[in-house]
Design a protein that fits this description.
15 strands, single chain, about 220 residues
Length: about 220
């Protein structure tokens, strides 16, 4: 299938690749690379990755495993060599609903990230499929929640992270015109960003006008 099985480096050392009959990479090892071995499920999705601390002695192996939903195909959980790892849940439409991290947070609970969408956020006037919020539970760092608001054309209008709100404006071609901030530490920098964007737009318009006038003078 024309895959490279032996790659010779400029210094004369080489990298060896092994492939399955399906064409998927089975194992790679050699010079200037970490040896890794892969397995896949019947659908061709990566199932495991195996690494070595001592490849020549075949010792110090560690295997990471991905487990998928047998009916829907999405990733349910990932497990490292110590059998710890994140877990995922999804909405009926396949959007990620929660991610439970491997890390332990407050109350001896694993940190939990929850995603909300227009159709399940409890509001009655925005039953769309776009993401409207992210919250964190059992997080010792107290990461602030994120909230998204969209305009009638489905474009992000505001993004609120803690006490900072980012406001975006667009033209009729869906190109972003301004980006401003209010609250939080980025308030002053955001005003500069908005001004700079406006200056760039004016400069671009001025250059287009200059080129048009020059072309018209040449034609005359």
């Amino acid at each position: 299938m024309l895959q490279a099985t032996d790659i010779v480096q400029p210094d004369g050392t080489s990298v060896t690749n092994e492939y399955l009959q399906t064409g998927l990479l089975k194992k790679t090892s050699g010079s200037c690379t970490y040896p890794v071995e892969y397995t896949y499920d019947a659908q061709g999705r990566m199932q495991t990755i195996k690494t070595w601390q001592n490849f020549a002695g075949n010792s110090g192996t560690a295997t990471t495993t991905w487990n998928y939903d047998v009916y829907r195909g999405w990733l349910n959980k990932k497990r490292y060599a110590d059998n710890n790892g994140p877990d995922y849940t999804y909405t009926a439409g396949g959007r990620m609903k929660t991610r439970q991290w491997a890390r332990i947070g407050t109350g001896s609970q694993r940190i939990l990230t929850t995603y909300s969408y227009g159709f399940d956020d409890g509001a009655s006037n925005n039953d769309h499929g776009d993401q409207v919020g992210i919250t964190y539970s059992y997080d010792p760092q107290s990461t602030p929640a994120v909230t998204y608001v969209y305009d009638r054309r489905g474009r992000q209008k505001t993004v609120t992270l803690g006490s900072t709100t980012t406001t975006l404006t667009y033209n009729s071609a869906n190109e972003m015109l301004t980006e401003g901030y209010s609250g939080g530490r980025r308030h002053r920098a955001a005003r500069t960003s908005t001004i700079q964007r406006k200056v760039v737009v004016r400069e671009q318009a001025g250059r287009r006008g200059w080129r048009a006038r020059r072309q018209a003078s040449h034609r005359s």
